[in-house]
Amino acid sequence: MGRREERLFRLNDEIARLREEIRLTDEELRIHQHLDDDARRDAAVGGPIEREDARGTSADVARFAKLLDDLRGRVARLEEKRDRLLSRLH
Asked: What secondary structure letter does DSSP report for 47?
């Protein structure tokens, strides 16, 4: 097997690993979104502690959403790299 084929296999492995990380991160984001919804409702009728909790859960949602976007961007770049490599094999 040549160097290009080995690189292709490594790229495919990394893409698969990142896709699994995306799946898990998406699931965790959904959990944080539910927690944030609850915290916002509590903050609307509660006091300063509930509002502080809502700010924290909102920050968690933003952090996981950014992570998800970053992971998807990495996958897209690796897929483009893989496609360029595949075109050179033919």
From this structure: -
Helix (H, G, I), strand (E, B) or coil at 56: helix
Q: Is the pLDDT of residue 44 over 70?
A: yes
Confidence (pTM): 0.88
Q: Which CATH number fits domain 3-89: 1.10.287, 1.10.3470, 1.10.10, 1.10.8?
A: 1.10.287
Q: Does pLDDT of 1 surpass 70?
A: no
Token pair recorded at residue 34: 């539910």
pLDDT at 16: 98
Q: For the beta carbon of residue 64, count every other beta carbon within 10 angstroms.
A: 19
Residue 44's identity, in one-letter code, is A
CA distance 73 to 77: 6
